[in-house]
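User: I'm putting together a small comparison set for a docking exercise, and I want a reference complex before I start. The sequence is below, and the ligand is zinc ion. Could you produce the 3D structure with the ligand included, as structure tokens?
Assistant: Of course. I'll restate your input first, then give the structure tokens for the complex.
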Amino acid sequence: MESQLRILEQMQLLDNKKGKYLALQKELPKQLTEINERVEQAMADLLAGETEKAEINKKQRTMETDIKTHHDHIRKYQSQLAEIKTNKEYKALNSEIAYLNEKVSEVESQLLELMEQENEIKAKIDEYKAALQEAEAYKREKEGDLKAQIDALDTHIQATLAERNELAVKLPQALLKRYGNLIRNKDNMAVAYTHEGSCGGCGFVIRQQMRIELQLRKKIVYCENCGRIMLDHKQVDNAE
Ligand SMILES: [Zn+2]
């Protein structure tokens, strides 16, 4: 009986190990996705920043062209002033020049605002570039290792199962079947240790008679509530 109890304990340790690998099989691909998403987000931010800057630069060019056109007109009108005969025409042309000068200073102050916006977006672009570099460096550092870990998980799981099956053949059929059902139906925990007088699996309080049986280790004791195989304390600690 003692050897069967030890085998059950070792099998549970191997099932715990398998459980950890299965959890990693879910977790590690998520980490891989996160690493790639971080790079993609940084690229999208940088692209958005550069697009914004290009739009600002386009507006600046349009305004600069406007200013140049206004200046050309002003120069043309100023040269015409000398040839003007009537006072009325002179006044009209002068007010046109004044209007254009006003326009020029209006556009110039808009240009100043745009320059500020351009500086702000330039600073942001620098930040986005740094974030992208960081995300790419992190990817270079982690991706290979993570992929290797993911690839190796199947092998680890198969090896753990093979090790468990080698132990399993040493158990009587009925006991093995019961163990297997508990693993499947009781959250991968077929063997539970007692914890402060209760079942470590479900918390059910153990009767005095069962406590004695647990200490004697002459028979397999099942929790009266959850049905798990109960053990008083750890006898084996390998396979962790
Ligand atoms: Zn229980």
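The two ends are 23 Å apart (CA to CA). The CA atoms of residues 60 and 208 lie 88 Å apart.
User: Thanks, that's exactly what I needed.
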